[in-house]
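To assess whether ligand presence alters the predicted conformation, the chain was also submitted together with FFO. Input:
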Amino acid sequence: METRQQIRSQIRKIRRNLTALQQTQAERLVTRQALHFIEQHQAEHIALYLSFDGEISTQSLINALWQQGKSVYLPVLHPFSQGHLLFLAYMPTTQMQVNAFGILEPQLDIRAVWPSEQLDIIFTPLVAFDQQKNRLGMGGGFYDRTLENWQQKHFIPVGLAHACQQVDMLPVESWDIPLFDILIG
Ligand SMILES: Nc1nc2c(c(=O)[nH]1)N(C=O)[C@@H](CNc1ccc(C(=O)N[C@@H](CCC(=O)O)C(=O)O)cc1)CN2
Ligand SMILES: Nc1ncnc2c1ncn2[C@@H]1O[C@H](COP(=O)(O)OP(=O)(O)OP(=O)(O)O)[C@@H](O)[C@H]1O
């Protein structure tokens, strides 16, 4: 069995090599599915992420949600609680900055912090997933911590991924949290 680190680097490489056309088509497919999922669940407060490293793009989904008047949130690396995320409101006017991983995130503003318990859906990035909806991320454990015991919380965690990110079986660790669903572009 391959190690988590081997799977990460393999899939990240494949993902980075998707063509612009493949990326655009996947974005269109996943946006349609996500809008349908949001409508089904009557979700109003929705956490997304800004794509990097070949991740399926969330840009057209975010634009559609803004048009519908939904509230969109993005993850921000917690300033002192290492390995934890905060979720901040994201609007077209939000001031952005580049974080330690080179990903754009809202500038920390206490007034924009939204408790994860009050989110309806958390759409998560992921590197690899399997049929059991196990999720392998970038390796920081950020979403594992956020999603801990999600069944007892209000929000639903849903992964967004390219089809090429699916693997037969992920080696699972005790802290890994299976997702409610994964939408494949
Ligand atoms: N778009 C997006 N945003 C996200 C995540 C994500 O996976 N995707 N995260 C999900 O958790 C958090 C950031 N987690 C990350 C963890 C590791 C690396 C990373 O690139 N690590 C480098 C080496 C480490 C370094 O540069 O210090 C690498 O593996 O090449 C990036 C993001 C929060 N925001
Ligand atoms: N709920 C948790 N509580 C404490 N530590 C955790 C928790 N979840 C994960 N960790 C720690 O975080 C580290 C990274 O975990 P893992 O490799 O599963 O991250 P990942 O799922 O790939 O990343 P991410 O969730 O950020 O996308 C592990 O060393 C693990 O010990």
